[in-house]
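Forum: Protein Structure Q&A
Topic: Joint prediction for protein chains with partners

I've read a bunch of threads here and the consensus seems to be that you should model interacting components together rather than docking separate models afterwards. I'd like to see that in practice. Below is the full input, 426 residues plus whatever partners are listed. Could one of the regulars post the assembled result?
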Amino acid sequence: QAAQEAQERGWHLYLVGGAVRDVLLADESQPLLLEDVDLVVDGFHRAADVGAGVTLAKALRERYPNARLDVHGAFQTAALLWHNDPVLDSLWIDIATARTEFYPYPAANPEVEASSIRQDLYRRDFTINAMAARLTGRRGEALPLLDFFGGMLDLRSRQIRVLHANSFIEDPTRIYRAVRFAVRLGFELEPQTQDYIQYALESGVYERSLGANTRAPALETRLKAELKYILEAPYWQRAFQLIGSLGALRCLHPSLKLDPLLWWRVRLIDRWLRRFDPDQTLKHWQMRLEVLIAHLEPQERGKVAENLQLPIDSIERLQHLGQAQTEVVESLPQCQRPSEVVLLLRQYKLPTLVLIAVHSYRAIRRKLWHYFTNLATVQAPLNGNDLKRLGYKPGPHYKEMLDALLTATLDGVIQDEADAQAFLEQ
Ligand code: ATP
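Posted by a regular:
Agreed with the consensus. Here's the joint model:
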């Protein structure tokens, strides 16, 4: 339908990017389900048609009133979205007008001007993502694949290759994307592309832009999005190792490296989270990211978390982690009775305690593990309702009574309801 609408207006319509790659990679054993489709309109002659992508999306919306239409004026793009549609299920179609992006300074936000499909493809990240299939044409005509940069060859030889030497200087998120595609597809980073990554990392361009105003806020958002994508994927460990071996954690902070201790900590926190947060009430990908940030000097952590626009509770956790760690490491060994352990540790939430655990020496870690497995879930035999039922007048003293009951339960003084009643009567 989209092709027909474009054809009627004398435009060309192309399927571009990841969808072309995935169609070419698909085999019969694994049916391909496209949920995210990028289209580009090209071939118009009048200046008024620079908004062709938006015009086309609006025309399609009239045919499919179920779709939601989002227009992004600044980038001349529009999106059509179907969510739980009876026929299309969930589908997201982005329609852009062929464009060139130029970078006024490194690592900045792309600006846009109308241009041709070749230039549109040239601004993309990797050859395998820079192919287009033309959807418009004469009836019966074989629809051509546009492959200006050797994408097909790289798909066959399973290589991730950038289109030009400055690619990573322009956009550091491409390093993370390269890793993501390499690991997800089982491809290799083409050797010269690896050299370009090294060159970009060593050029200092990211360090100079870190925290400085030259680094566009959109860059941080995209960096976080790529990190999230990687850290929540089933293949996150392999991707993380590859990022580490490239030295690409430097994009987050100049001193951040994947040393053996950090590698051990990210895997350890995973074990703790699987054990103590099996329902994933916490965002595990974000906790992995927090371990990375916590590997920095305490005074650097909050800044990096802020730069990455992590949620406020995460920023605060990282800012105060050093202090919480000192308190726990100093006080926990002094606790004699189980109730003292609970009194100390219940001031902290689960994410803070697991971060402390992976940053502590073994004896502390053991005590924290014991706290989570044996103590944190202990309840007194009576609750507030029971106190009411037993005739105690409600009031602020309830808290005191319940705390005393919990303490006595934890320390083994009382075991059941009868013990608890006797304890209260004393
Ligand atoms: P996925 O299947 O993981 O969504 P995708 O290739 O569709 O993969 P997107 O992040 O949706 O990835 O991006 C769509 C297309 O936009 C890519 O195929 C690529 O051509 C282009 N692209 C995305 N991010 C960048 C970038 N940072 N630099 C250059 N091109 C990019």
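The first strand starts at residue 12 and ends at 16.
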